[in-house]
Amino acid sequence: MKKITKIVTALVAVFAVVALAACGAKKDDSKAVHTYTVGVASDQQKEIWEKVGASLKDENIKIKVKLFSGYTEENPALADGSLDLNSFQHVAFLENYNKENKQDLTYIGYTLISPFGLYSDKKISKPSELKDGDTVAIPNDVTNGGRALQALEALKIITLKKDAPASPTVKDIKTYNTKIKIKEIQADQLVSVLPDVTAAFINTNYVTDQMHTTPKKSAIYIDTDHLDKVSKLYKNVIAVRKEDKNKADFKKIVKAYQTPAIAKLIEATNDYPAWDGAK
After folding, report:
1. How many whole angstroms separate alpha carbon 24 and alpha carbon 18?
2. Quick check: 30 pLDDT over 70?
3. How far is CA 103 from CA 99, 157, 198, in A?
4. Among 48, 118, 148, 193, which residue has the least CB neighbours within 10 Å?
5. What single string gives the DSSP state of each residue in 183-227?
6. Residue ranges per structural domain of the chain
7. Contact yes or no for 145/192 (Cβ under 8 A)
8. 195 to each of 136, 137, 159, 183, 203, how far by Cα in Å?
9. Are 34-114+233-273 and 116-231 equal in CATH topology?
């Protein structure tokens, strides 16, 4: 009987140790650092995301930032799991990517809206100086190219068809009020072709990274100077895979991004914070 009692006592002790170990493991797991990789397309956005990451240390979240040189790799990398999030594109770009590639990437929060400017290499000083025969270069992707066409319409240089889609193409031009030539160029190559055209619409990240200037200093026209004419489709977002949309850590990441401190950093880069209540 004593022998049985000793065995039972020993088993109870073993179970107690296992239970404590399990509790300890669970506790340790709750404190484990979760690492996520975010893809960006500019040095300035890399710096901003590094600040976001620094603010998440107490949440046991680590952010790794991967810098890309263009706009073509970030979404495929997100779709195949190489990235956990990306932060480089606006809503229109994301929707077009999903449509063309049969994907269902989504977004979990707004980040910024970036000025989209028209630039000229000393050929003209304002859009009204464009004349028949001049060449204007625009991005060759549908969404940024569409934004350029909408700007040209706002400037009354072209007129778009009434049934033109939210992201129009050159085929949606009804009338050339000034008979310019429109040249479609890959977005990250527009700076290099600027000397060969009359003017070019260039995304701000390439203006800062390649031209080492800002829209306010160098653009002859900026569409965000007329924000009421800029579609909400051009608000930049934090994109994720659809199945991760409600992930608790990602909600914390959005909250860490959408702060007054990050808003100031965005404004310092000549962009505008785009989330509700940012201003």
Report:
1. 10
2. no
3. 7, 36, 37
4. 193
5. EEE-GGGHHHHGGGSSEEEEEHHHIIIII-S-HHHH-SEEGGGGG
6. 34-114+233-273, 116-231
7. no
8. 11, 11, 27, 13, 17
9. yes
Secondary structure of residue 260 in the 3-state scheme: helix
- Output the pLDDT for position 277: 86
Q: Residue 202 region, left (φ>0) first, then alpha (ψ -120 to 50), else beta? A: beta
CATH architecture of the domain with range 34-114+233-273: 3-Layer(aba) Sandwich (3.40)
Average pLDDT score over residue span 3-11: 47
Confidence of residue 199 (pLDDT cuts 50, 70, 90): very high
Q: Which residues neighbour 193 within 8 Å (Cβ) at sequence distance 6 or greater?
A: 137, 183, 185, 200
Rounded to whole angstroms, how far apart are CA atoms 251 and 194? 41
Q: In what order do the strands lie in the sheet with 181-185?
A: 181-185, 135-139, 199-203, 116-119, 221-222
- Looking at the DSSP bridge assignments, the partners of residue 125 are none
Alpha-carbon span 125 to 223, nearest angstrom = 16
Phi, psi at 240, each rounded to 5°: -145, 170
Q: Which CATH class, in words, describes the domain spanning 116-231?
A: alpha beta
Amino acid at 102: K
CA–CA distance, 137 with 217 (Å, rounded to integer): 20
Residue 172: CB atoms within 10 A of its CB come to 17
Selection from 37, 39, 138, 52 nearest residue 94 by Cα = 39
pLDDT at residue 279, rounded to an integer: 65
